[in-house]
Amino acid sequence: xRRKLVxxxxxxxxxxxxxxxxxxxxxxxxxxxxADCAVCAPAPYLAQCQAELAGTSIGWGAQDxxxxxxxxxxxxxxxxxxxxxxxxxxxVGHSERRAYHHESSALVAQKTVAAxxxxxxxxxCIGETLEEREAGRTAAVVGEQLGAVLxxxxxxxxxxxxxxxxxxxxxxxxxxxTPQMAQDVHQLLRAQLAGVDPVAxxxxxxxxxxxxxxxxxxxxxxxxxxxxxxxxxxxxKAADFLAIISxxx
Length: 249
Ligand code: 13P
Description:
Blueprint: E1 4-9, H1 16-29, E2 35-40, H2 46-53, E3 58-62, H3 79-84, E4 89-92, H4 95-100, H5 105-117, E5 121-126, H6 130-134, H7 138-152, E6 162-165, H8 179-194, H9 198-203, E7 205-209, H10 214-221, E8 228-231, H11 238-248
């Protein structure tokens, strides 16, 4: 059985005081050990996560990383630096990076390789836009996004990936995929993984993201191939984030 995993993506929100209140609220309310959880904070606050979460069962990670290991890349953050601050996870290829920072599938694949090389767990985000879904291109789009990464990593590293299916039209819109719509895509993704290594594919966690809230989390995560959630807005309130973790457990 795959363990459930719930990750909060804070996006570009928070400050020292608000983060502290949120993290202590999550830590104080976390009773269940039935699911794993983590937060992905803006890079300047990773040290704060490390200081405040060390010794808890809450993991932390970053929202992006450089494809390069170091050097003259002004403004970028290397995988090794994330490791230095205790990160376990790093999001790669979030749709906001793909859309606003023009990250191609090839760059996302290089970032995934960089994360793996540093010992991080990459959370590879993939998903189609509304236009692509309505044109019947969902399978082709997510297949290309995943395929670029599968072509770049070693087969032996497949088991170290976490995937997050995030339909772009469901992110921050309050419009969630139905459990069946999400399950259909998750199943496709797992089949694609199985084409590389069936044993590893059966163990890879595939999270759903896009307006997951306390009131829809349980039904989504009850689907056979939905192994947790990548949560945006609802991860900024301790009570909501805790309720989703409980729904996963
Ligand atoms: P929302 O939960 O706010 O829709 O965001 C989802 C997301 O993009 C998480 O990475």
